[in-house]
Amino acid sequence: MAYRGKEFDNFVRYLRTNLPAAKPIKVQTKEKLKYLGATYHRKDYILIVIDRTQSAQVMMDTLIHEWAHALSGPTTKEDSHPTQWGICYGRVYRAWVKFKYHIGD
Ligand SMILES: [Zn+2]
Question: What is the DSSP letter of 10?
């Protein structure tokens, strides 16, 4: 089992500060998921679940993907990754570059 890692926790904290959603975002890591990650839009919060048996890099990629779902809101089965998700993904990826490489605005 891969340890989710200090960098993962630090980036979650960074995202909470720099890219918050309308509701609090909870992040859980679990074993034996059928998917790399998922985002659930609940009434009072948003839940992100990530497979912690994956490598640190895959977990980080998944966190970036799911945080974009948290920001862009619920989607439909027909179009689970609409343009608005893509725009949010760009924002989260940009936050990752700034966090990882200390590249400012
Ligand atoms: Zn997705």
Answer: H
